[in-house]
Amino acid sequence: MQFALPPRRSPAPPYAHSSRFPRYRRKQLKTVAVLAIAVFTILYLLPRLFSSSSPSVVAPAGTASVVIVTVIDREQLSESYIKKIVENREDYAKRHGYANFFTSTSDYADAINDAPQTWAAAPALRHAMATYPYSTYFFHLSAHALIMNPSKSLKSHLLDKARLESLMLKDLPVVPPDSIIRTFSHLKANDVDLIMTQDGEDISPGSFVLRQGDFARFFLDLWFDPLYRSYMFAKAETHGLDHIIQWHPTILARLAMVPQRILNSYSKDSPSAGADGTYQDGDFVVRFHLCESTQGRDCEDEMESYYKLWQSKAKSQ
Q1: Structural domains of the chain in order of their starting residue, each with its CATH number
Q2: What is the pLDDT of residues 20-55, one digit of tens each?
Q3: Residue ranges of the chain with pLDDT lower than 50?
Q4: What is residue 283's three-state secondary structure?
Q5: Pairing state of beta strands 203-211 and 137-141?
Q6: SS3 205
Q7: Are 128 and 97 in contact (CB under 8 A)?
Q8: What is the four-CA torsion angle of 86, 311, 283, 151, rounded to 10 degrees?
């Protein structure tokens, strides 16, 4: 009896594989590699985004750590007034090895367009940072202000980490008296890139300190955004600042609010000072807030008594 045998099959060659498998495997490995690189890049960059620490760049010898930025409206102020402001700033800078950056509102007229000239603070600070790329801090001070205590360096008075930590006002309504947005209670001095004060009504940008870096450029670009300049805020750049600090946590996360008299004391004739915001002898700065726009006030007359007091202090210190 014969049985049908299954047809013979040629044995498969040893180690044979489908011709499609290697291509699929290579494609799969390539995808995994790309994803791994993307994840590594994100994990590397995220901690450095808006980091308060700047890249390790060696500044040239003699670089000033602090630059004082003063924007002057030369069409509205007399030469004698401007001369006194410049003298005050230059004396202070010379004492502490700082630099001055004097500029005019007219330099930014094309950028500001039809908005109030007080918006010039933002492009002026960008201009100063480009001019002094290795300096760390930029101290914006209104032309309607005098540095009254020349012996106090900005570093010991405000910028030292322990000193700043002791001054920071935490869990404070950002816009007085009762804004629902409050300064962060967990913020540390190492996180701070922007130091400001309030008066009795608003954040007060006539005197503040900004640290050079990515955050500073982001902050100034946001503040100077055409949308805010065209919005016709009642107090122009001040209300624009109120808005972005309240509604942009990225800004609030780098902001330290300090008591008004630390950086921004108002003269006795200035309106809207905070509860303890009026100048007292020994304060760092006196500012003649709104002297140029308040009926019955004259900036030059108001400055004169403070200027003479500053001169006597400068000679004795």
Answers
A1: 66-316 (3.90.550.10)
A2: 546 656 666 666 666 666 655 555 554 555 454 444
A3: 1, 5, 15-19, 21, 46, 50, 52-55
A4: coil
A5: antiparallel
A6: strand
A7: no
A8: 80
